[in-house]
Amino acid sequence: MSKICAALLGSVFILMGVNSCYAEKKYDPGASDTTIKIGNTESYSGPASAYAIVGRAQAAYFKMINDQGGVNGRKIQFLSYDDAYSPPKTVEQARKLIESDEVLLLYSTLGTPPNMAIIKYVNGKQVPHLFIASGGTVFGDHKKYPWSMGFQPHTEGETRVYGRYVAEKYPNAKIGVLYSGDGFGRDNITGFRQGLGDKAKNIVAEVTYESTEPTVESQLLKLRAAGVEVFANFTTPKFAAMAIRKAGEMGWKPAQILHGISISVGSVLKPAGLDHAKGVISTNYAKDTDDPVWANDEGMKTFLAFLAKYLPDEDKSNSNLVYAYMSAQAMTQVLKQCGDNLSRANVLKQAESLNKLELDLLLPGITLTTSPTDHYPIEQLQLQRFDGANWERFGPILNID
User: What is the pLDDT at residue 291?
Assistant: First the structure.
């Protein structure tokens, strides 16, 4: 009888253990035993449509993950809507994603103005707003917006790097800056001036553009007329290509600094004219698919195999593919860390718990690190120069601050 009782008691403990495992599962809207819903807004049309490839590549990455069995046995449902880079449309789409589609989180929503239009709403709803596709410095403000987090190096930090470089290499040159008339642009000029320090007095011309403008020709003419010798081109891809091409066509040859969001050879420098872009200085934190140094790199091999299978018709020289792949890889890691606790609070907690995370396409020595008081995952860069065909990195890995 004692053996029977012991066996029964053991069975009870086993059942209790099984039940406790099930009890550990926790779901908020957008999560279940089989599915994780992720919401996204992207500029599939409009003035920033050059970034449409980011959304397509992220969708392809999550399809790959689903083909491999998903994340902890759950398939990712990636709901990505076009907002045409229009803040009112972003608000409409974000509300649809959260209130109608009931996504677990928002991920990689594109652009500074669109994200600024939704950030208070999303934080008020306490929905994770992760790996925002913008360098806006505000998106790492964990005190003001605790549910939001950037991904790439923040804009002020990046342009401080350019300011320091110009102050050292061109201490007496006349400087001109082209930047957008929005929050992204304000971050750019703020960081650049900080990096220049007392050399900020050498800025002889600042001109802005709006995302709805058809060209930036008049702005380039003003910069040239001001005698600018160092041209800081802090623009998004469409306008970056226009500016580089126009400068070349005018025969105007200042030293050029190009913002890191516009370094794609395929979508920016080729349309601008490779000869016009020769000598341009920028930064990067990721491996370049066109650089032969990565030919035998395992991370690059994995990435190229992904492209061959899931995006065979895309131009692999488009750096936006690299960005999308890394961002989706980081998002997948956060979901893996969540285990069976897919509450919104735990998703945020896991996003804040990345410790020197290595991604396939980050430059050696650069990793992702976050904490509850650090919502800037990538905070390192390396300078690079375009040689007319490829980017050539130079100098050490730089920490932005």
Answer: 87
pLDDT in tens, 123-146: 999 999 999 999 889 999 999 999
Question: Are 13 and 52 within 8 A, CB to CB?
Answer: no
- Which helix (H) or strand (E) element contains residue 248? helix 237-249
Considering only CA atoms, give the Rg of the chain.
Answer: 23
CB contact at 8 A, 156 and 185:
no
Question: In the chain, how long is the greatest CA-to-CA distance?
Answer: 101
Check: CB of residue 188 under 8 Å from CB of residue 160: no
Place of tokens 């069975």: 11
Cβ-based burial of 69 (10 A; exposed 0-12, middle 13-18, buried ≥19) = exposed
Residues 6+ apart with CB under 8 A from 389: 274, 290
**Which tokens is 110 given?**
């594109």
| Residue position matching structure tokens 């299978």 | 309
At 221, list the tokens: 């003419």
pLDDT interval class at 5 (50, 70, 90):
very low
**DSSP label at residue 269:** I
Residue with token string 């990712």: 76
User: By the 8 A CB rule, do 110 and 134 touch?
Assistant: yes
Residue 148 is given by DSSP the state B
pLDDT at position 15 over 80: no
Overall pTM > 0.70: yes
CB 344 within 8 A of CB 104: yes
Decide: residue 20, CB within 10 A, 0-12 exposed, 13-18 middle, 19+ buried: exposed
Q: Residue 48 phi/psi, 5° resolution? A: -110, 25
**Which residues are CB-contacts of 391 (< 8 A; sequence separation ≥ 6)?**
263, 265, 282, 284, 288, 290, 291, 384, 385
Residue 265 Cα to chain centre, angstroms: 17
- C-alpha distance across the termini of the chain, in Å: 71
How crowded is residue 3: how many other Cβ atoms within 10 Å of its Cβ?
Answer: 7
The neighbour count for residue 350, using CB atoms within 10 Å, is: 20
Phi and psi at residue 364, to the nearest 5°: -55, 135
- Tally Cβ neighbours within 10 Å of residue 146: 15
Query: Rounded to the nearest 5°, which phi and psi values hold at 116?
Result: -65, -30
